[in-house]
Amino acid sequence: MGSPSFACPPMTQSTALPMTRRGALAAAIAAIAWRPARAAADGDAAQAEALHVLDRFAFGPAPGDLERVARLGASAWIAEQLHPERLALPAWLVDQLGTLRTPGQTQRELIQGYRDAQREAREARKAETAAPDGTQAPDPAAGERRRQAAEIAYESGAERLLQALASPRQLQEVLVDFWFNHFNVFQGKGLDRVLVESYEREAIRPHVLGRFRAMLGATAKHPAMLFYLDNWLSVAPGFQPRRKPGLFGGGGGKAKAAGGLNENYARELMELHTLGVDGGYTQQDVTELARILTGWTLQPEHPKHRRFGDAMDTSATGHGDSVFAFDPARHDNGSKTWLGRSIPPNGQLEGEFALDVLGRHPATARHVASKLARRFVADEPPPALVDRLALRFLETDGDLREVMQALADSREFRDPRPTKFKTPYQYVLSAVRATGIVTTNVRPLMGQLAQLGQPLYGCQTPDGWHDTEADWLNPNAITQRVNFATALAAGKLPLQRVDEPAMPANNALKAMERQADRAMNGNQPVEGSTPPVDAATLLATLGPAISDKTRRAVENTPPALRAALVLGSPDFMRR
Amino acid sequence: MQRRHFLGSTAAAGLAWAAVGRTAFAATGNAPLPGNRRLVVVFLRGAVDGLSVVAPYTEGAYYQQRSSIALARPGQDGGLLDLDEHFGLNPNLAALMPLWQAGKLAFVHASGSPDPTRSHFDAQDYMESGTPGRKGTPDGWLNRLLGAAPAGARASVTRGISVGATLPRIWAGPNPVANIANGARAGKPTQLDRPQVSKAFDALYSGDDAMSRAYRESQQSRAEVNEAMSPAAMDHEQMVANNGAPLPGGFPDDAARLAQLMRRDPNVQIAFLALGGWDTHVNQGGAKGQLANRLQPLGRGLAEFATRLGPAFDDTTVLVISEFGRTARQNGTGGTDHGHGNVMWALGGNIAGGKVYGRWPGVDASALYEGRDLAVTTDFRQVLAGVCMNNLRLPDERLAAVFPGFDGAALNIARA
Q: What are A189-214's pLDDT values in tens digits?
C-alpha cells in the first residue's frame, strides 16, 4: 500500500494498478453495498466512502466531516444533501450573509444605480474637459457610486464563497457552481457588473435541484443573460424605437435608430445551454430562433413609466421584481420554421414554446448528462452512465434532483478512486475548508482564483470554465497551488480581516491579487491572518485522502512546513 | 554540464540563482544561433472582424453591407491606411504601418477553416488541433511542432512558452511547455524560491506522473524565465526600447515581456499568447468604438514586440489568427454575427511582406458564403504549413506530423 502513483487510470483496469491508500479500498468498497458502514471492521471503508462523497458532492472534508459522514453513512448523507432546504445554516453564517447589502436590492435598483454611476462618470469626464486646470472639484457622489458598483462585485463573490466554504448544504453549493458555469455570464461586461449576484440568487440557486426547464426560463429572462448575450437588443428587422435607444450608453458607437436581429443568444441557447453543438440544428435554425426571441428584452424603468404594458410572464423571479419584458412591437410577427417545426405567430408564447421544446429535447438530456458525468465522475464520461442519466432526465421531465439521485446511485460514481484533477475553484475551497479556518474575508481567495486562471464570475465566454485535467494541469498551476498552500498553512492570508482598506473602485480584482501577493510573500504578519495550521489535525481531517508516501514525507519535514506539504501535495490536487 | 541541469541545480539553490544565473547566460552567449527560427502565435479569441482589420475600400458592396461600421476610404477623416490601392488597414493599427512599409508585414485575406462551424468553441478547437472537422485529435499543432522540429542543443523546458495561467488546447500533447503568468507576476519570486520549501516539495513531486513532471518543468523554467526577466535586465531593456516610459497594462505589456524573454533566453523557440474580447455583436463601432479600442493596444503591442526583439525579429515569425470571421453584413444592433472567412496576419523579418496574399472572392452578395459571410479561399493550414516549412525550415517530410491529413498546397509567404 502507498505506492507513489497518482496517475488517473481508466476505471475499468482496477486490478493491475498500483494503488493509493484510497485506491486500495476500492475493491473492498465495491464489494459491500452502498449503505451505512456497520462496524469498526468497516471503519476504513466507511471513511474512504465518506471522503469520496465529500470530494464529489461537497468541496472536500472540513474538520470532523469524515467521522460525521462515515457514521451517518454516505447514502443517508446524500439523501440529506438532496434536500438542502431541510438543513439549517449556522447562525454565524446567517449573520455574515446578513451584512451583505446587495441581496436586498431589486433588479431595478441595481440597474438604476449602475446607470446613475455611468451618467455621473460621463459628467465628471465632461467637467474635467471643461476645466482641465482642476478648478471644478470632482463630484464626490460620482466616486461613491463607482465604489458601490465595486462593492456589489465584491459582495457577489462573498455571498458565493462564504456559503461554498461553510454551508452544510454542500451539494447545493457545488451545483450552484456547476449550473452558473453552464449558464455562464461574465461579470466584466457592462451592466453584468452589478447583476451577477442577482442572477445567481434568482435564476440559478433556486433551481439547481428543481426542473431544468425552470432554470432555462429563469436564465432566459434574467437581465444578466439578456444583456450578456445581447438578446435585449434583438428586434424585428426594421423596427423603429419610439424614443432613443441606448438605455445604458453603449461602448462607443451609437446604436442605430432602426434595429434588427442579433443571433448571439439564440445560437448559444442551443449550442451551450440545451442541445449541444452536435445537437442537429442548422444556421437557419439559429436565425429562426433569434426571430422567435425578438422582443424578449428588459424594461428597467419603474412600472408607471413603462412604455408598454406588463410582461405576460412576471414569474421569472420569486419576488415579482423582474425587469424582463416582452415587447410585442419589437417582435418579428412572421411565421418561422425551426427544428423542422412550423411556428405560427404567437408573441411571447413562441419563445416559451421554443424553451419547452429545447428543455425536453433528447439532445439536451444527453448534453446535460454528459456534462454532469464529466464533473462528478471522469474527464471521459462513461457512455453507459451518460445514457442512464439522459434517460432519467427524459423520464422525469428534467427533474434535476432525480438526475442527481441516479448519478449518486450509479456504479461509476461509487468508484472511490480520485479520478478528477481539482479546478482552481475546487482546490482553493477544499484547502480552506480542510484547515477549518472560519473565513469572513474572501478577498484573498478571489485574488488567488484570478491568479490561478479561474477568476470568480470572470469567464468571458459563454461556454464557462472547462472541467478536465487537460484544462487545468500545467507547470504554472502546480507552482501557484504550492505557493498558496504554503501561505495558507502558515496563516498568512488575512481571511479574518474585519476592516478592509478601501479597494480602488475601477480595478478591485487586480488590487485583491496584489494584496494576496503581498500577504503570501511578505514576512510581516498581516492583520486578520490566522494561526499556523496544525499538521496532525489537518491529516486527521483529510484521512485517507493523504497517502502513506506523503505522510512519510511530512514526518521528515520541519514542523513549520508540514501542513503546507499536506495541502500542496499531489494527493490533495485530486478529488 | 548541460544547461538545463545547471539551471535545475540553481533553482534548488533558491534566490541565490539570480547572481549565478547571469554567468550561465554569459557562458551560453546572447546572440541567437544561426538557423534559430522562431514562431509566435497570437490567437484572437472570439472571432475578430477581419473585414474591419483589412477592408476592401474600393468595393461599393463593402459600404453597402456596413452602413454604420464601414471604415472610410484612405485620406478621409478616420479613414483606412492604404495598403495596396484596394485594401486598407484599420487606422487603429497605425503602429504597424512602419512594418508594412519595411516589407515585414503581410496579410492572407479570405483565409480560414474548411469546416463550416460558426461555433466559437468548435472553431477554436479545430484551429488549435490543426485538424478541422475532427474533434478526437488529442494534441495541438504547436505541441506537435515542438516534437517535429529539430531541437538540437536547444532542448529546454522553455522551448515552448505560453503566456497565461493555463495551457490552451494548441499546446496539448507530450512535449513540455512552460507557461508564465500574465503581467508583472511573471518572474516574481514565490514561496518555492525558499530552499527549505522547494526541498520539501521536491520530494513529493519526484515521480513520473503528470503532476510531478509539471512541477519539475515549472521549477526549471522559472529559473530560466526569472533570469531573463530579472528587474535589472528589464530596466536596461526598457531604457533602450521605450525611453523609460512605463508600459500600459494588458497586451502591450505581455508582448514586451515576451520579447524580453525571447531576446535574453535563446532557448525559447515557439511562443503563444491569446487575447479575448473580439465577439462584437453589438455597437462594434468604426474608426472609434469597441473594436477600435481592442485593436489599438494589439497594434501597439505587436509593434513594441518587434522593436524589443531587436535583430532577433529577423528570424522570428509572428502569426495573428482568429477562429473565423464575422458576417459581411452588419446585424441589427450595430455589430456583426459569427461568419466564416477572415484575415490572417504575419509579421517578421523573414516574411515577404507589404502584400495581401490570397485569392480575394469579394463581398458582393453573390460572392458571399451561404449568402452572408466572406468565403474561405485559403485553408488556414496552407498558411501555417508554409510558415513551418519556409520560415521555420521544418523539413518537408515532418510536415505531415504537424498537420496530419492535410494534403493542400503550402502558401509561401517567406522572404526568398
A: 889 999 999 999 999 999 999 999 99
Q: Measured between CB atoms, which of A251, A263, A573 is closest to B337? A: A263
Q: Do A255 and B283 touch (CB under 8 A)?
A: yes
Say if residue B251's pLDDT is above 60.
yes
What does chain A come to in residues?
A: 575
State the Cα–Cα distance between residues A567 and A554, nearest whole angstrom.
11
| Whole-number percent of chain B with pLDDT over 70 | 85
What pLDDT is recorded for position A505? 54
Please, which pLDDT band fits residue A55 given cuts at 50, 70 and 90?
Answer: very high
| CA torsion, ordered A218, A221, A224, A229, to nearest 10 deg | 110
Q: Are A239 and A329 in contact (CB under 8 A)?
A: yes
* pLDDT band at residue A83 using 50, 70 and 90 as cut-offs: very high
Q: Is B314 on the interface with A (CB under 8 A)?
A: no
Architecture in CATH of B31-187+229-402: 3-Layer(aba) Sandwich (3.40)
d(CA A376, CA A402): 15
Quick: pLDDT tens for A5-52.
333 333 333 333 444 556 555 545 554 444 444 444 478 999 999 999
Helix A74-81 to helix A43-57 angle (10° resolution) is 20
Domain boundaries, chain A: 367-414, 421-575
CB A218 within 8 A of CB A317: yes
Using pLDDT thresholds of 50, 70 and 90, give the confidence band for residue A142: low
B191/A234 touch (CB, cutoff 8 Å), yes or no: no
Question: What is the residue type of A465?
Answer: W
Q: Do the chains contact at A550 and B120, CB–CB below 8 Å?
A: no
User: C-alpha angle with apex A534: A73 to A23, nearest 5 degrees?
Assistant: 40
The DSSP element (H or E) to which B1 belongs, if any, is none
> Can you give the pTM of this predicted structure?
0.85
| Contact (CB<8Å) B219/A479 | yes
- B316/A contact by beta carbon, under 8 A: no
A143 in Cβ contact with A121 (< 8 Å) = no
What is the rounded distance in angstroms from the CA atom of residue A27 to the CA atom of residue A15?
Answer: 9
First to last CA, chain B: 38
**Cα–Cα distance, A423 to A429 (Å, whole number):** 10
CB-closest option in B210, B211, B283 to A250: B283
- Tell me what the pLDDT averaged over chain A comes to: 85
Contact B119/A277, CB-based, under 8 Å?
yes
- Write the single-letter amino acid at B39: L
